[in-house]
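Bug report

Summary: structure tokens for Solute carrier family 12 member 1 differ between web form and batch submission.
Environment: batch mode, default settings.
Steps: 1) Submit the sequence below via batch. 2) Compare with the web form result.

Sequence submitted:
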Amino acid sequence: MSMNNAPNVFLDPNANRFQVNIINEDHDNNETTQEDVGSDPPHYEETSFTDETHNRLRISYRPGKRELYDNFCQNGEKTEASLHPYDTHSKMYYLQTFGHNTMDPVPKIDYYRNTGSVSGNKLNRPSLLEIHEQLAKNIAVSTGSVERVVNGESTTGDETAVSKEEENKTGFVKFGWVKGVLVRCMLNIWGVMLFIRLSWIVGQAGIGLGVIIILLATMVTSITGLSTSAIATNGFVRGGGAYYLISRSLGPEFGGSIGLIFAFANAVAVAMYVVGFAETVVELLKESDTLMVDESNDIRIIGTITVVCLLGISVAGMEWEAKAQVILLIVLLVAIANFFIGTVIPTNTEKKARGFFNYQASIFAENFGPDFRSGEGFFSVFAIFFPAATGILAGANISGDLKDPQSAIPQGTMLAILITTIAYIAVAICAASCVVRDATGNVNDTIVPGMSCNGSSACGLGYDFSRCASQPCDYGLMNNFQVMSMVSGFGPLITAGIFSATLSSALASLVSAPKVFQALCKDNVYKGLEFFAKGYGKNNEPIRGYVLTFVIAMAFILIAELNTIAPIISNFFLASYALINFSCFHASYAKSPGWRPAFRYYNMWVSLFGALLCCGVMFVINWWAALITYAIELFLYIYVTYKKPEVNWGSSTQALYFVNALDSALALTTVEDHVKNFRPQCLALTGAPMVRPALLDITHSFTKNNGLCICCEVYMGPRKLCVKEMNSGMEKKQAWLTKNKRKAFYAAVAADSFRDGVKSLLQASGLGRMKPNTLVIGFKKDWRSAPATQVENYVGIIHDAFDFELGVIIIRISQGFDISQVLQVQEELEKLEQERLALEATIKENDFEEGKRGICGFFKKASTLNISKHETKKESTINTIQSMHVGEFNQRLLEASTQFRKKQGKGTIDIWWLFDDGGLTILIPYILTIRKKWKNCKLRIFTGGKVNRIEEEKLVMASLLSKFRIKFADINIICDINIKPNKESWKFFEEMIEPYRLHESCKDITTAEKLKRESPWKITDAELEAFKEKSYRQVRLNELLQEHSRAANLIVLSLPVARKGAVSDYLYMAWLEILSKNLPPILMVRGNHKNVLTFYS
């Protein structure tokens, strides 16, 4: 294959950057091509992203070569972007990036989008395999996709253009920082408190403490605003507000618990704003003496009507909201300006009687200190004011709709906090400098000569309000919630401001609460709330959430007491703010490389202080409400943790897990191993964990919560296919372990042979001190029918484990471990069942269609039914046969595969501790007995000894086990291990090894040497004679095991060791076979001859 720049790659030094060159591949023109390449040195051109708006192929050409391009276009090709090389049949075209013929794409944001991103299409860059492997000959650029392939996407069609058309159709609006964040936040922060409670707050707390209350609330919101800016600029924030910020930062546990609280707080806020609106209306009705029932019930009636109207607006659509924001803000600003203007307009007699005297130093001095009444205090007043400072998340909630959220959110949020704080302080100071705390409203309460006065500032200004000390008054800062209307230059403007502030805030909360709740339900954190995740209409409106919010708001409107509602909201919002601040701290503390907020003006310790401040303020405001809030949050946290929703948001909690694990692993490397802390850390050759579940189960029994367990698999074959298969199955198999509650890791390698793969795993598995010290493998049942190379690899693995100083455990059960055939049959049966269900559904559909026709349709229907019945009958017969097959041949295998998951009844674990291997042979069964499934099994110890020293040997062993603090039921000293086995047993052993013997002693030397060279794996006569005593011992041990341990639940036996180069593979396998034949589950164990037990403290 020749890849070259002929015929004369079109170049134009003046053309736009980021160009695509057509590359010709033509085997018939090799000579011409080489001449062109040789005579014309390559030209290198720069690339760029300029002018991406035109979706067409740009081709540059060298001077004088345009006719080649023109000819090319005339060969059936379109001149637009739909370049299709297949029309030329003999040419193949590649794309050029940075002057090189390559599939490597240039960096582009579309490669980093999530699937289903609303801000643009996700593109798929070429995989490393596509770039690394040899380029296929039949690659072609599909119609209309040349430019996209250059940019790394390999899909066909004009999806990008379609998505742009859809975007244009929907009229997707992007807001700047003023309209998108500043206006929204100011509208939400300025609310009912500004007009009808701020005067009362400053009357209770005085100017000094009133300003401190405002600044304390501002401190909380400012720190939270900084944390919000940091989190919101660390990636796009979608709908969900505080829930989205916290859940994506701290994980679903914290996010799910606070999400419900935050949504509920917004729902209650609707009631608060509507009650504020209703209070204003009732005051107007009271002035005109047109109350319907009484004040409280009128508030309930008007509040109910208002929230019903707001619900109707929300359900009908909110398209007007964005345009109305600026108008509402203008109304609010005019109302505030109207108040300030009113403070300098000379007052009149009526207003003086109500306590308004313009700016007076005496009033300022009198109102500077606190005068808490009716059981109120600093923090109770703060609790009532704090909701007026909320609303700072309004901009962050729509960050996906902002042109530049990374700059808009910090600028808009922090500037909104600054402006609203200045406004609150200015209004508080001005109101307290102009209006006295108590006034009667009676124009006749003036001071006449000779009348005594209580010395208040009102007395100095000619009014006597002293009777307010003994009886309630209706006017003044403490008594009249409509002080701002009285002070203002034009009262109805203040009323309009109240209406604008309350209704806009109520409407915003009525929209945000369902949106937050819908985001929570969409994430499926709480399984029972999926009902509320459904959206309706083109804007995916949460109608069901609106109804739920309406019900909650109505319940709190019936309370009709703003001072009762406000502290509840304070606690809920403070809990949300605390977790936002903690999220910022936690993300910074975890030091994840993914924590890269564009907003830099934050500090992790300031965020932590903000979180603690929020928690402290919660308790100071209302300690029992704080305890209830934390109890609810803790309950929801435990619930979500227990349910473990299947989500992965890359939270800082995950990052901290990694950091803690890494720190612990590094700290562990500095700690020297000690025998008291020894634990079996097993490398189990299970293959895919689901294929040999019993091997995993028994290994897991002595490693769970105690040691490391790694399930290993070796892929053999062509490297490319093996790596692809291995990578595709890694997550699936680890997920299977997690789903089945197996505390184990899955590891896989690709290797040329099984032994090479295991050798790699033995050397490279683990981390630091957490490295495997024991190899666990199943017994190779098919060693007699398997190829010699497989047997050599199997025994070689045992030798390798000993070479690397690992202990070895070989496990054998009567039915074997591999259930892959059963799994395959089950999979086939599931497919057949799915096909049967699909066929039935199709037949029903056909029956329905044919039933609509006449007599012909009736007969067709009858024939179809007959056929379908026949097919169903035939298929059910196949299923029955398959089921019988599984039942007859695999039922025992299935039962054996789950035998170690069941609780073991009363019985024994027989330990044949024949050789001292450091104590692993005794430690493994001891660990099993402390597990719940094996705790009813007693340990019986079997060991070798002399006939004349049986009691002494028992005492020695009992003393040793007592020092090791290992309980046992019985000790048996076996004295006849070394006698010859019976003839039948030995004959069986000889017959078993007969096919693998060389019998070289019966042949001449030349023939014998030739046989050794041809079959080096066979057992020689010399070898058999040299290890005859050892062979006797293995056969004799099986006889003893049959005699003493046939009824044991489990046998643990010292594994014989074969000397490398001396004992052949088949002889060693014969030893293991005869040793473990016809027995209960048996573990043949050999430690690495280093102590794993100690009797020292």
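Above is the batch result. After comparison, the two runs are identical; trailing whitespace caused the diff. The mean pLDDT is 78. The chain has 37 helices and twelve strands.
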